[in-house]
Amino acid sequence: MTAAPAHPQASHYPDPVERDFLTAHNLARVDAGAPLLGWDDGLARDAQDWADHLAARNLYDHASPQQRKGQGENLWRGPRDRWSPWEMVGFFVEEKRHFRPGNFPDVSRTGQWSDVGHYTQIIWPETRKVGCAIALTQADEVLVCRYWPAGNIWGQRITVSEQRTRR
């Protein structure tokens, strides 16, 4: 008789929504030549706590650096029951059109790093884990995604693979 392999208690196979969030992130990372992310339940719990906070107070603000505990964060808000996880992450990934390789924050063709900040967090080469969560208001959905380690580090270089830039 053989024993079943041990599984960490903090982790599980992502449910379909989690899997969709993870896959949408990883497709953008593959396209940029970045390593794949893993799903992290702790990040997802932190994201859920912040999403619940925002929805309960009808706010739309990033958590403070102290509240994020060094985690990166992307936020999205839109009409309730209208968008799939793929579409929500797609809004972040659409910022790719303004991205140019360089040292952060000088990474946007528009001159405003905030025009690419969601995208660069997704493809940040050193980031290894993601966790996302949704909370509902009466009219909207609030998405919070948390990342570890955080990206968008001032002065650090971010590029995409050479093969991808020729498309």
Care to describe what's here?
With 167 residues, this protein is an alpha+beta fold. The chain contains 6 helices and 6 strands, in the order αβααβαβαβββα. The strands form 2 sheets. The protein has a 4-stranded mixed sheet with strand order 1-4-5-2. Strand 4 (129-136) and strand 5 (140-148) form a beta hairpin. Helix 1 (16-32) runs parallel beside helix 4. The protein is globular, with a radius of gyration of 16 Å. The N and C termini lie far apart (53 Å).
Helices and strands in order, then pairings?
Blueprint: H1 16-32, E1 38-39, H2 41-57, H3 65-68, E2 72-79, H4 85-93, E3 102-103, H5 117-123, E4 129-136, E5 140-148, E6 157-158, H6 162-165
Parallel strand pairs: 1-4
Antiparallel strand pairs: 2-5, 3-6, 4-5
Helix pairs in contact: 1-4
> What proportion strand?
15-25%
Categorize the overall geometry. Answer: globular
Structural class call reads alpha+beta
Average pLDDT metric: 91
The gyration radius over C-alpha positions equals 16 Å
How many helical stretches?
A: 6
Strand line-up in the sheet with most strands: 1-4-5-2
Distance between the termini: 53 Å
The largest sheet, given as strand count, sense and whether it forms a barrel, is: 4 strands, mixed
Instruction: Work out the number of β strands.
Output: 6
Helix content: 25-40%
Order of helices and strands: HEHHEHEHEEEH
The low-confidence parts are: 1-10, 163-167
Characteristics of this structure?
6 strands; disordered N terminus; four-stranded mixed beta sheet; globular; two-stranded antiparallel ribbon; 6 helices; disordered C terminus; about 170 residues; alpha+beta
